[in-house]
Amino acid sequence: MAAPTVEEVGAAMYGRDITAHWLGIALDEVRLGYARMHMEVKKEMANGHGICHGGLIFTLADTTFAYACNSHNQVALATSCMIDFVSPGQIGDVLAAEAQEQHLRGRFGVYDIRVTNQKGELIALFRGKSAQLKDQVVPT
Amino acid sequence: MAAPTVEEVGAAMYGRDITAHWLGIALDEVRLGYARMHMEVKKEMANGHGICHGGLIFTLADTTFAYACNSHNQVALATSCMIDFVSPGQIGDVLAAEAQEQHLRGRFGVYDIRVTNQKGELIALFRGKSAQLKDQVVPT
Amino acid sequence: MAAPTVEEVGAAMYGRDITAHWLGIALDEVRLGYARMHMEVKKEMANGHGICHGGLIFTLADTTFAYACNSHNQVALATSCMIDFVSPGQIGDVLAAEAQEQHLRGRFGVYDIRVTNQKGELIALFRGKSAQLKDQVVPT
Amino acid sequence: MAAPTVEEVGAAMYGRDITAHWLGIALDEVRLGYARMHMEVKKEMANGHGICHGGLIFTLADTTFAYACNSHNQVALATSCMIDFVSPGQIGDVLAAEAQEQHLRGRFGVYDIRVTNQKGELIALFRGKSAQLKDQVVPT
């Protein structure tokens, strides 16, 4: 079988990504080592202080990270992530996340993800580390 | 007005914590600088690899962190968090998170959160940094 | 007194930076929110495995971070740093670090630092958070 | 050859740890998954603000981490570290670092290190991740 294109790899992952659909995370673009997704902050995403729960900002960033680090068609899992919350997300905001590979050596990668709102303001900076497994996302 | 007890502070936060109720995160215990919560991994929490989405493990840990760092009745927000994923969570697992204050100086705190499954196996290690604001959780 | 140029701020810091001189860390360039420095890995910088001690790679990155986050002529201290070691440094290598401001809001900043060797290979990725104090580096 | 004791593993590492001797880092104790070391902050360890350079606090913590994660007599390298600086170190302070294994699964480990001064005040919290290689520290 021919190797799948990176768009096919992204589409295959997205087809079975239950959480992404449940939370309304849309896949905008995927390239080798890169992905962009967005999500509207719904009212059920408010924490006890009335702003977007940091866990859901993280989930958007982490999901985008997954599409970037799996774009090589090798199953990769997050091993460690860190996030800096620089500005709160408000209910009704549309948050976009952009993931860019910084380094990939052997099976270990480092990815930076920026989360911004609809005005282009920075909401969070995320750095994720990934480890590839032996499986392929789309078997060839 | 008398200062609220730590249980009253936790109950006040939980009453308006829409995300926690939406995701089924239950509050088990809150003490000064400490909180414990748990969550069942539902089938909509699966990522594209069929295991619990790391973002939801993070959200459980981050929520527990919030109750621990707000337990002093001073509104505190997460500024930065990091998580190490050491073992995957499976659909149907019941994950527990336990947050313990490591340091609080002025308005800045550091908290460690351990996430384990129903067998007591370690799922993730989380460290969060918080900054207190001027508001109180329960005004006195 | 006129506000100092960013080069004067960097030169003032470097003049009193005892550790930088002791370790042979040279200041190549400083601009607003940016700095570049380099250091030769001397034989006393070997750890128990015979490669450059990670603490000294960190120190080079952390020093470069300091020049970038103090470039606004406001004294800033590191509050939290993380480093990923992607390739070992060898004795005799000349390591360069380049720091770039990612975000500065109020008195809190986030900076990314890349450490490379003389062949341009990536050695480490560092992310640092800073907090400005009330003092100026060069009083005006 | 009989398996070495954990003290013999620590002594073998320390014997060839050039940086530790150069910086005056002393090894107090090593047990399985645990190590304690200390270092006096000398005047050449001052940064441009006159306090102990964060890179050297990191180096003390990172060194102690190395003895803890190599205590199983399997060569282990740091892959990723993060440090929170909670209080400055002063010239003349004696800083102690204590490393404790939090998790070891397969060849990957997570270790927490606390750095305190001679008054028992917390100076820094460090978390390090390690990966074991195939070599032994003391061949058996």
Q: Going by CATH, what is the homologous superfamily of chain A?
A: Hotdog Thioesterase
Q: What Rg of chain A, in angstroms, do the CA atoms define?
A: 15 Å
- Biggest interface between chains: A-B, 38 and 38 residues
| Shape-level CATH architecture of chain A | Roll
Q: What is the count of structural domains of chain A?
A: 1
Tally of helical runs of chain A: 3
Shape of chain A: globular
Question: Care to count the β-strands of chain A?
Answer: 6
Percent strand of chain A equals 35-45%
Give the assembly state of these chains: homotetramer
CATH class of chain A: Alpha Beta
In whole angstroms, how far apart are the ends of chain A? 5 Å
* CATH topology type of chain A: Thiol Ester Dehydrase, Chain A
Strand order of the largest sheet of chain A: 1-2-4-5-6-3
Can you summarize the main beta sheet of chain A? 6 strands, antiparallel
Structural class of chain A: alpha+beta
Q: What share of the residues of chain A lie within helices? A: 10-25%
Q: Return the average pLDDT of chain A rounded to an integer.
A: 96
Which helices and strands occur, and which strands form pairs?
Four copies of one chain form a homotetramer.
Chain A: H1 6-15, H2 18-23, E1 26-31, E2 34-40, H3 54-69, E3 74-85, E4 94-105, E5 108-116, E6 122-136
